[in-house]
Amino acid sequence: MDVENLLQIYQKGLMVIYFQVTCTGLSDITDNVINHDKFTRLLI
User: Fold this and answer.
1) Best exposed site among 13, 16, 18, 23 by fewest CB in 10 Å?
2) What is the helix (H) or strand (E) element at residue 36, kind and residue range?
3) CB atoms within 10 A of CB 26
4) Does the pLDDT of residue 11 top 80, yes or no?
5) Nearest to 9 by CA among 18, 19, 33, 20
6) H or E element: which one contains 28?
């Protein structure tokens, strides 16, 4: 998965989730299809 797709998923997660967003939480939302490490690396 490329960076643009990860960024888009991250942005949509921020808009939809009404509580604290974590990389692990985003991974859970995608049924662990996207590992939380990929979101973490995106933010570094």
Assistant:
1) 18
2) helix 36-43
3) 22
4) yes
5) 33
6) helix 23-29
Q: Which two tokens stand for residue 18?
A: 């009404």
Report the percent of the chain where pLDDT is more than 90.
Answer: 0
Residue in the block written with tokens 């009404």: 18
* pLDDT tops 80 at residue 35: yes
> How many angstroms separate the CA atoms of 44 and 33, rounded?
20
What whole-number distance in Å separates Cα of residue 31 and Cα of residue 33?
Answer: 5
Q: Contact at 8 Å (CB) between 38 and 1?
A: yes
Q: Which residue has the tokens 């991974």?
A: 27
Q: Quick one: 10 exposed, middle or buried, by C-beta within 10 A (0-12, 13-18, 19+)?
A: middle
